[in-house]
Amino acid sequence: MEDLLQVLVSGLSQGAVYALMALGLTFIYRSTTVLNFAHGENFMLGAFVTVVLIEGGVSYLLAVAIAVVALLAVGVLIDKIAFEPLLERDHVTQVFATIAVSFVIKGLVRRVAVDERGVPPLLDVEFIRVGSAVLNPQHVLTVLALVVVSVFFWFLFLRTGLGRILRASTQSLRGATLVGIDVRTVFAAMWGVGAAVGAIAGILAAPTLLFSPDMGARPLLLGFAAMALGGFGSFVGAVIGGVLLGLIQIAAGFYISTTLGDLSGFLLIFLVLVVRPEGIFKTSESTAA
Amino acid sequence: MSDVLLAVESVTVRFGGLTAVDSMSVVVRPGAIYGIIGPNGAGKTTFFDTISGHRRVSAGRIEFRGNDVTHEPAHRRARMGLARTFQLGGIIPDLTALENVILGLDQARRSGAVLTDRRSDRAVALATLERLGVGGAADQPCVSLAAGTRRLVEVARTIAAGAHLVLLDEPGAGVHETESRELVRVIRALAGEGTAFLLIDHSMDLVFAACEDVTVMNLGKRIANGPPEAIRNDPRVLEAYLGTTAMRRA
Amino acid sequence: MRALLTHEAATLAAITLVAALGPLVLNGYYVYLLTIVFAYVILAAGFNVVLGWSGQLAFMSAAFFGFGAWVSGRATSLYGVPAEVALVLGTVGAAVLGLTFGALAVRLARYYLAIVTLTLMYVLDYSYRNFAELMGGVSGFRVRDPRFALLGGAQATSDTDRYYIGLVLAILTYVVVRWLRTTPTARGWRVIRRDERVAAALGINVYLSRLSAFVVSSALLGLAGAWFVFLNTRFLPEAFGMHELLFDFLILVVGGLGSLNGAVVGAVLLVMAREYLRTFPGLSEILFGGVLLAVALFVPAGLYGTVAARFRSLRERVA
Questions:
Q1: What whole-number distance in Å separates Cα of residue C125 and Cα of residue B16?
Q2: Chain B residues lying within 8 Å of C211, measured CB to CB
């Protein structure tokens, strides 16, 4: 029973990271139809900036806040450099541009941060007890963060005027332009927000991982997996897909074998895309890639 | 009728609660030139797509050269002698006119035609282009050709493919009036040699000039059918295009 | 047309002749470097088929390059198989993997295909590292010098031997791919790259067309890898991951995506550049990423494509 609870929390927390990655990817994909292959670097930079600031003496919360804002800026920058100039071009070129950005960022960070380093967790609490189960507080925090972020964006998108503008832009670019919405600003905003959400994922996941410039690769791929699972282009699907993926991964690793746990994400990608490319939860929002 | 090339029976297309094509029927014979007109959103292109195999039908039957092709994918119909042009992008722009026509020869081979060997492809393609009056454009990349010339190259490709029936999707799109007349002349000449044409276009002038039989579509349904002279003055057609208010005011 | 072909053949013969003189005038280091170039010419020509010609976002180069290398390396190190057989095994093995994987994968469009091929790369990498007894482990395995049965069991130990064998393989690959370009199948790839609806209207079975491009690429990438493994002393899993993939993208893009000659030019330039940049660790990523971005932004036709276009317009103006 305690095992189950631990697996559940662990899986939800892992899933939350994937869900956040998938959300970030979906923001960018829905508004610009580009799959941002540099999103893993948003993850990595979030962790990186946080670590550097903390080592520089900044308090944890402030470091996190600065990191998120910094990544908002990074997202906008990537949009301006690697996406906007290529708006009219074919998808292959656009994808290559994001891959190029990914490598430049990795290379730059590698020059600056030579060693791998550990990232300190937020709470000083070692563990939380629930009955006879021992839970990692970082996991609980991560799940909470997902809930907060999801609610925040749900509110923003569905309940505010700004959200209406953003939704209009993602549904019809031409329509939005005709109504006077500056779509370039919308693009920039979505890229910024997408990057920031990816950074949050990185900040939350970092304490359980070692920081390295290459740490974004797996979360990127698993973010894709979550999107595929939940239905490409669907925000709700991204969250559900991510959580499901995390649960499956942890459960498989715990109950069957560690190898299967590691591979489960990959195998799931194959399975979903081969059997049901439109995702398990086909919503009206999900589109074909 | 054993000489019917294409028989479309009560084809219906429904998606998302909308009926885009409502029980449309068409019969095309060899050497005929058949036109479909209608206002925007009438369902012409959707209907066209069901004939070429680019869209599934929700109901109905399509027979081509005596075979039931209702559920056949586009490439199989293309291999039976059905060719199609596209409103935009049917021609590969960075290839030359000659190379585009050779694609038609490839299609002929896929249809099982026994052609001369590949080395004479260029000569055959050139001859086809000349037959349509655009031999001079042979070695030019299509991106640099005028819209009318490009359209003729596309038609040349369908002839090279040995098509029995050619579907022309908005052949007049972006084409200058003089070129448009040339296009009509070429179509009539080719039809005289046995190729059947089915075309849709916005320009009623083009359709009336080229076709011997015209169907008018509106809201997915057939509302009129007959030779151009009859259709031209049919009040139902005018109503479909202009709307009832305009009719009442007139 | 005929004139063009002999013109090309003459150029190819000239290049081959010049290349054949290589070991006589260059020192050992450059001979080795050029041998690597030859392996990458095969890789680039092969990758260009699926990515450049058929326009599919198949991020498969590193995976199949690595797989061919693994099969060939394993065959020679564990089973003492002669090199020719290892090359065939690597090529065929990669083709079989390409066929089975591709049969399912090419049904997917655009980004899905990219994701799935990336996943394959990671799964292979994971397998190499974790199923040690079968695959070799994190530090790979030692590769023995290739023995060539055709040469009477002689071992190709010298750089010069490997140079000439590599040159022959590269020339053969080029000729085969060049011929491939004249076939209706290859013309079909060009059409599906542009517009699959038009392809279907031309009688092309789009699925089979995509698959054929995928399998051809798999085979050539496998051949490149199967040969490449003999140029190093070890098979290392990390040599066949994202970094390799980016490098391969760069080769095609810099040369000119969709052009065989561009791929060759790209291979030569980039292998040399990478060698040079080895002295500045960490810089290659930034530089390569930057170049990829710059080329995508400013020189979409790639170096070869741009030069060839200039040359063509020059000829038109003169004629």
A1: 44
A2: none
Work out the minimum CA distance from C53 to partner chain B, whole angstroms: 13
Burial of C279 (C-beta count, 10 Å sphere; 0-12/13-18/19+) = exposed
> Residue A157: pLDDT band by 50, 70, 90 thresholds?
confident
C-beta atoms of A269 and C119 within 8 A = yes
Give the separation between CA B241 and CA B218, rounded to whole angstroms: 9
User: Average pLDDT of A171-186?
Assistant: 76
Domain ranges of chain C: 25-239
DSSP class of C233: S
Q: What is the pLDDT of residue A288?
A: 41
Question: Is the Cβ pair C115, A228 closer than 8 Å?
Answer: yes
Q: What is the DSSP letter of A284?
A: T
Predicted pLDDT of residue B199: 94
Which residue(s) pair with A117 in the sheet?
A211
d(CA B178, CA B226): 26
Q: Is C308 on the interface with B (CB under 8 A)?
A: no
Q: What is the pLDDT of residue C319?
A: 47
β-strands B59-64, B213-218: how paired?
A: unpaired
Residues C213-232, buried b or exposed e (16+ Cβ, 10 A)?
bbbbbbbbbbbbbbbbbbbe
Predicted complex ipTM: 0.90
Ordered by where they begin, the domains of chain A are 2-275 (1.10.3470)
Report the alpha-carbon angle A136-A139-A142, nearest 5: 150
Per-residue model confidence (pLDDT) at position C264 = 95
Residues of chain C found within 8 Å of residue B111, distances taken between Cβ atoms: 203
| CB-count burial class (<10 Å; 0-12, 13-18, 19+) for B168 | buried
Q: Give the whole-angstrom CA distance, residue A152 versus residue A218.
A: 26
Q: How far is A247 from C317, CA to CA, in rounded Å?
A: 66
* Least CB–CB distance from A100: residue in C55, C289, C300: C289
Does the distance separating the beta carbons of B84 and C199 come in below 8 Å? Answer: no
What is the pLDDT confidence band of residue A112, given thresholds at 50, 70 and 90? confident
pLDDT tens per residue, chain B (250 residues)? 458 999 999 999 998 888 999 999 999 999 999 999 988 878 899 999 999 999 999 999 999 999 999 999 999 999 999 999 999 888 999 899 999 999 999 999 998 877 777 788 889 999 999 999 898 888 888 988 988 999 999 999 999 999 999 999 999 888 888 888 999 999 999 999 999 999 998 888 899 999 999 999 988 899 989 999 988 888 888 777 776 544 444 4
Q: What is the pTM of this model?
A: 0.90
Q: Does C286 contact chain A (CB < 8 Å)?
A: yes
Q: Nearest 5°: phi and psi at A134?
A: -110, 120
Task: Please tell me whether residue B20 adopts helix, strand or coil conformation.
Answer: strand
Q: Does C184 touch chain B (CB under 8 A)?
A: yes
Which residues in chain B are closer than 8 Å to C198, comparing Cβ atoms? 86, 89-90, 92
Chains with ≥3 CB–CB distances under 8 Å to C = A, B
Contact (CB<8Å) A110/C55: no
Cα–Cα distance list, C94 to C57, C154, C177, C219 (Å): 18, 26, 17, 5
Chain B residues closer than 8 Å to C206 by CB: 75
Nearest CA of chain B to the CA of C272: how many Å?
32
Q: How far is C223 from chain B (nearest CA, A)?
A: 30
Taking residue A269's Cβ as centre, other Cβ atoms within 10 Å add up to: 27
Q: What does the alpha-carbon distance between residue C54 and residue A85 come to, in Å, rounded to a whole number? A: 25
Closest by Cβ to A288, choosing from C109, C257, C283 = C109
Measured between CA atoms, the residue of chain A closest to residue C194 is A90
| CB-closest option in C1, C190, C205 to B75 | C205
